[in-house]
């Protein structure tokens, strides 16, 4: 892929070799909601040249408060297609593949995880998330995973650590429990928050006068400064890993 002038400032920071490696990097991202959508944009704006986004959902009015591609004009459109259009407008030379599919045990064989340099998990469903994490670990690919970004307000409590060391996150606790029950002992870095808030009780028909879209068993409150920070951290893990391997600035105290 030819060098794009939009990434001049990026090259000044990480160097030509790392920028070229980012352009050749293949990433697959599962889930493009409040966390995944911001992760996808950060990857493309960082120079990642090959990105596959996977999500079977369509844009709902209640997505507007936190999901990058959601606007009042594209309600009802597939999330991955709306996001693909935006990403290609930012970086037309990138290869952005949009798959309007769900990842689960029945469809996992459709995704050749080992053909990617990085797998990013931003899935909401616990069972689907655990299966993806286990499958990625079995495939031996580099995996970065997002834990619970809902019911959070304080972005300063967001952390990155081993999935086995994350603290204060209810979702991470259940993920670990299910991984253990499957005999999974691998590891990956995850983004999580230590903040513990009591959710506000609300009627899920209040916002739109109708039932919220989707089939989730439970709907939690969430805000963009948290979900966006989770997504940016996930993208940053990819960038930092590439830079560590192929040059760039060194840190010092």
Q: What topology does this entry show?
A:
Elements: H1 8-14, H2 16-24, E1 26-30, H3 36-45, E2 50-54, H4 79-90, E3 95-99, E4 118-121, H5 126-139, E5 142-146, E6 158-162, H6 170-181, E7 189-193, H7 224-246
Parallel strand pairs: 1-2, 1-4, 2-3, 4-5, 5-7
Antiparallel strand pairs: 6-7
Helix pairs in contact: 1-2, 2-7, 3-4, 3-7, 5-6
Gist of the model:
The chain has 253 residues and is of the alpha/beta class.
Overall description:
The chain is α/β, with parallel strands linked by helices. Mean pLDDT is 91; it is low at 204-215. Strand 4, helix 5 and strand 5 (142-146) form a beta-alpha-beta unit. It is built from 7 helices and 7 strands; from the N terminus they run H-H-E-H-E-H-E-E-H-E-E-H-E-H. The protein is 34% helix and 13% strand. The termini are far apart. It has a 7-stranded mixed sheet, with helices on both faces. The longest helix has 23 residues, at 224-246. It has one domain: Rossmann fold. The protein is globular and about 45 Å long.
């Amino acid at each position: 892929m030819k060098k794009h002038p939009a990434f001049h400032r990026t090259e000044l920071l990480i160097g030509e070799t790392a920028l070229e490696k980012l352009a050749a990097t293949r990433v697959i991202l599962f889930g493009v909601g409040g966390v995944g959508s911001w992760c996808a944009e950060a990857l493309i704006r960082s120079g990642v040249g090959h990105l596959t986004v996977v999500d079977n959902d369509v844009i709902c009015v209640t997505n507007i408060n936190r999901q990058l591609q959601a606007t009042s004009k594209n309600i009802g459109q597939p999330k991955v297609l709306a996001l693909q259009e935006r990403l290609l407008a930012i970086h037309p030379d990138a290869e952005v593949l949009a798959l309007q599919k769900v990842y689960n045990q029945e469809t996992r064989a459709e995704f050749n995880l080992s053909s990617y340099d990085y797998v990013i998990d931003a899935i909401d469903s616990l069972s689907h998330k655990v299966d993806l994490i286990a499958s990625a670990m079995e495939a031996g690919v580099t995996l970065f995973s997002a834990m619970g970004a809902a019911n959070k307000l304080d972005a300063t409590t967001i952390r990155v650590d081993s999935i086995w060391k994350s603290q204060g996150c209810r979702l991470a606790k259940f993920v670990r429990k299910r991984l253990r029950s499957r005999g999974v002992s691998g590891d990956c870095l995850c983004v999580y928050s230590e903040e513990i808030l009591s959710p506000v009780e609300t009627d899920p028909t209040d916002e739109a006068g109708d039932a919220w879209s989707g089939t989730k068993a439970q709907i939690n409150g969430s805000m963009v400064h948290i979900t966006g920070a989770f997504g940016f951290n996930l993208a940053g893990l990819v960038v930092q890993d590439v830079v560590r391997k192929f040059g760039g600035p060194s840190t010092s105290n």
